[in-house]
Amino acid sequence: MAIALRFAAAPLRLRLVSPAPPAIGGAGDGGRGGGGGAARIGVLGRARCRRRRGGGGRLEVAAAAADDSARCRAKGVGAAAAAAETLGGIEVGGGDQLSVVMKFGGSSVSSAARMREVAGLILAFPEERPVVVLSAMGKTTNLLLLAGEKAVGCGVIRVSEIEEWNLIKDLHIKTVEELALPRSVIHTMLDELEQLLKGIAMMKELTLRTTDYLVSFGECMSTRIFAAYLNKIGVKARQQLDAFDIGFITTDDFGNADILEATYPAVAKRLHGDWIRDPAIPIVTGFLGKGWKSGAVTTLGRGGSDLTATTIGKALGLREIQVWKDVDGVLTCDPNIYPNATTVPYLTFEEAAELAYFGAQVLHPQSMRPAREGDIPVRVKNSYNPKAPGTLITKQRKMDKVVLTSIVLKSNVTMLDIVSTRMLGQFGFLAKVFSIFEDLGISVDCVATSEVSISVSLDPSKIWSRELIQQELDHVVEELEKIAVVHLLQQRAIISLIGNVRRSSLILEKAFQVLRKSGVNVQMISQGASKVNMSLIVHDSEAKQCIKALHQAFFEDDVLTEVEEEALHMS
Ligand SMILES: Nc1ncnc2c1ncn2[C@@H]1O[C@H](COP(=O)(O)OP(=O)(O)O)[C@@H](O)[C@H]1O
Ligand SMILES: N[C@@H](CC(=O)OP(=O)(O)O)C(=O)O
């Protein structure tokens, strides 16, 4: 193994964080270096609007299907839907301006029953004047991607047989029928989608640009259905709004576009203007934008609806941004890896951003930036358990008692060990290495360096096509080999310990104790400039076992509590 444990060699401390995306007409051209794809470089450690609702705001809420409510109540989640059923005649909004964003993810709007529940949640806060952001229903985005891939190879005649296309069609038609809406709400969209799949089949080609257009149908359909449902039950909802039509302007990086500065005034003007003219709840598509050069539909990267929500929050200077999920907030680790995870009640924007960037699926990696810039609190809530307090993310929080906040795992990481072929003292080596990454548009997560060698971890998971990953890796190795000896190490995992880096010795001491006992050898360690994150790289095969052991030690063991208390007394 090339590296057992590698610390920064020089005392120099740099904090370089990727800049905000360029403004339109600014220096940047919106290329891949504009944010999402740029390297993040840490310490020599981690590269890397109010109007009172008039009489028209009175609600007459139709009764939802009794069987859905019974099922939801059995899960302890029925209060909101029940409220929707019984809230006839309440007035939405006592103030003048839009006040919150409420974003509901795919799991929150996966069926007709869930859409009723979400409508109930919105109505359960009659004093709020929300902007609603929705993702595609359930797993629709994944299904669209698979349908597109299959269309490439199946021939026009067989498009109607693509299983994923039929699942998408059936889910949306069933939802419309169960909500007693006219089929016309989505018929045009479904027809267009089928035509698009046939076009892909005919061309035998699926570009990133077409892929973005294809997946956009998910959000375009969920929002049309939901807006129609709200209107049907008597809640005045603006007919659905496509983000790409209301000012979401992005770079042209299809699949992972960055939001440009021009978006904020444009979105504020449109949403505020609409509200002033006619106060009705806006239902906006998450995840989507419009490329500023191409004018084509773009997507903001997987999970991008969170970013849509925080962008609207900042644009309108709202009181709060709520992201409603299927978990009780941000948890101490991924509950799919270790089910004993518990809710983290408070986080800073910085902690949440690190957590998301290093792989916690719960938040989109870029979503904290607008919230932080606008200083707007983000609340992560559970639409299946609305009474749970969730996680509140703010600029600052009391850190004196904080040791570790959350443990995050990023799997399928590739590492590169790069040793200079020149002599010790050769300057410009790091610059050359990073210019190669920049030229190839490769994103770097963690870095550990000495004067003549550098170890980095890359994150190929952001790229959608598997073949492209291998091609890109081969290319980067080929380029680096012109100046260095390169070892490519695949199937690694980054375990990020998000916490109070002022207690780094305590955290690392405990973490290494745990890992040693588990017989795990750490291959690289890196501590970010963010002051909230320490990253350890281990082999993928050992990672889940590490997460479990670390969680037990940090969040479940009494022994640690003693160590923590001792450290806290000393400070
Ligand atoms: N640290 C974590 N805290 C909470 N959820 C996490 C964490 N890490 C991973 N997850 C996963 O993220 C999921 C929620 O995110 P996501 O699926 O994007 O929600 P939505 O689609 O509702 O916006 C949870 O169901 C959980 O499986
Ligand atoms: N539908 C998109 C965008 C999104 O944000 O989804 P969700 O909120 O369900 O993670 C996706 O699956 O990536």
TrEMBL record:
<comment type="function">
    <text>Involved in the first step of essential amino acids lysine, threonine, methionine and isoleucine synthesis via the aspartate-family pathway.</text>
</comment>
<keyword id="KW-0547">Nucleotide-binding</keyword>
<keyword id="KW-0677">Repeat</keyword>
<keyword id="KW-0150">Chloroplast</keyword>
<protein>
    <recommendedName>
        <fullName>aspartate kinase</fullName>
        <ecNumber>2.7.2.4</ecNumber>
    </recommendedName>
</protein>
<dbReference type="InterPro" id="IPR001341">
    <property type="entry name" value="Asp_kinase"/>
</dbReference>
<dbReference type="InterPro" id="IPR041746">
    <property type="entry name" value="AK-LysC-like"/>
</dbReference>
<feature type="domain" description="ACT">
    <location>
        <begin position="418"/>
        <end position="494"/>
    </location>
</feature>
<comment type="pathway">
    <text>Amino-acid biosynthesis; L-threonine biosynthesis; L-threonine from L-aspartate: step 1/5.</text>
</comment>
<keyword id="KW-0809">Transit peptide</keyword>
<dbReference type="InterPro" id="IPR054352">
    <property type="entry name" value="ACT_Aspartokinase"/>
</dbReference>
<dbReference type="InterPro" id="IPR045865">
    <property type="entry name" value="ACT-like_dom_sf"/>
</dbReference>
<keyword id="KW-0418">Kinase</keyword>
<dbReference type="GO" id="GO:0005829">
    <property type="term" value="C:cytosol"/>
</dbReference>
<dbReference type="GO" id="GO:0009088">
    <property type="term" value="P:threonine biosynthetic process"/>
</dbReference>
<keyword id="KW-0791">Threonine biosynthesis</keyword>
<dbReference type="InterPro" id="IPR036393">
    <property type="entry name" value="AceGlu_kinase-like_sf"/>
</dbReference>
<keyword id="KW-0028">Amino-acid biosynthesis</keyword>
<dbReference type="InterPro" id="IPR002912">
    <property type="entry name" value="ACT_dom"/>
</dbReference>
<dbReference type="GO" id="GO:0005524">
    <property type="term" value="F:ATP binding"/>
</dbReference>
<dbReference type="InterPro" id="IPR042199">
    <property type="entry name" value="AsparK_Bifunc_asparK/hSer_DH"/>
</dbReference>
<dbReference type="GO" id="GO:0004072">
    <property type="term" value="F:aspartate kinase activity"/>
</dbReference>
<dbReference type="GO" id="GO:0009570">
    <property type="term" value="C:chloroplast stroma"/>
</dbReference>
<dbReference type="InterPro" id="IPR001048">
    <property type="entry name" value="Asp/Glu/Uridylate_kinase"/>
</dbReference>
<keyword id="KW-0067">ATP-binding</keyword>
<dbReference type="InterPro" id="IPR018042">
    <property type="entry name" value="Aspartate_kinase_CS"/>
</dbReference>
<keyword id="KW-0934">Plastid</keyword>
<comment type="similarity">
    <text>Belongs to the aspartokinase family.</text>
</comment>
<dbReference type="Pfam" id="PF22468">
    <property type="entry name" value="ACT_9"/>
</dbReference>
<dbReference type="GO" id="GO:0009089">
    <property type="term" value="P:lysine biosynthetic process via diaminopimelate"/>
</dbReference>
<comment type="pathway">
    <text>Amino-acid biosynthesis; L-methionine biosynthesis via de novo pathway; L-homoserine from L-aspartate: step 1/3.</text>
</comment>
<keyword id="KW-0808">Transferase</keyword>
<dbReference type="GO" id="GO:0009090">
    <property type="term" value="P:homoserine biosynthetic process"/>
</dbReference>
<dbReference type="Pfam" id="PF00696">
    <property type="entry name" value="AA_kinase"/>
</dbReference>
<feature type="domain" description="ACT">
    <location>
        <begin position="496"/>
        <end position="571"/>
    </location>
</feature>
